[in-house]
Design goal:
alpha+beta; Thiol Ester Dehydrase, Chain A; six-stranded antiparallel β-sheet
Length: 146
Amino acid sequence: MDINGILKSIPHRYPFLLVDRVVELEAKRRIVAFKNVTFNEQFFQGHFPGTPVMPGVLIVEALAQAGAVLLLHDMPDRESKLVYFTGIDRARFRRAVVPGDQLRLTLEVLKLRTKVCKMHGIAEVQGAVAAEADIFCALVDRDPAH
């Protein structure tokens, strides 16, 4: 799935869209996606000047966005739904993510109910784990006025 498919799947837009491509998707089970990290990212201006490092919270957000693509992918009424990030457990950060890195985002569904989901996510750079976490989310109806 290219960027156009991602834009059709989730409502996130620049500068907060953190998924660039999906390379594997097994409906309701697993997704592998990529985030290309470039020096032009707005957060590098202040985190940290002279030593740019992607904030850990944004790595987790990239995982959550990839999870949202997975959950909404084959939902027939996905335009009327949002996936809210509701919790995180066992988050660990193992290496810095810097400009030029390509984050490989892998999520596996651990539990899936009608309106809630728990997934385990791993963010890697060249095979080395940068971060991992259990991510919780809720599927909610989008306000039709928006």
